[in-house]
Write a structure and sequence with these properties.
5-stranded mixed sheet, 5 strands, single chain, alpha+beta
Length: 94
């Protein structure tokens, strides 16, 4: 019997990636890669707590962004445009 790999989950069913960083005013920003969830927080601990809650407590799906990371509420950019310009300086939490 031939071994067949199960299909990959649909992109909409995958765990969202959450980015955390500071904006130009010193607030902590959380935003998912689709721009559908996120917010502003007064400290890193609350931002991380929110991101972990939203992604089902999966630290591998949380990225800390170095530099300035502004919250995008326009809803116009696709997932690939949501990554900050300093994406090379990001690191995973886990």
């Amino acid at each position: 019997m031939k071994h067949v790999e199960p299909p990959s989950p649909e992109p909409s069913l995958r765990i969202p990636l959450f980015m955390i960083g500071k904006d130009s005013r010193g607030n902590w920003v959380v935003q998912d890669n689709h721009g559908s969830r996120g917010g502003l927080f007064v400290n890193r601990a609350e931002a991380l707590k929110s991101a972990m809650f939203e992604n089902g407590n999966r630290p591998q799906a949380v990225i800390i962004v170095a530099g300035i990371f502004e919250l995008d509420v326009s809803g116009k950019a696709g997932p690939e445009q949501r990554l900050p310009s300093n994406a090379g300086q990001m690191r995973q939490v886990a």
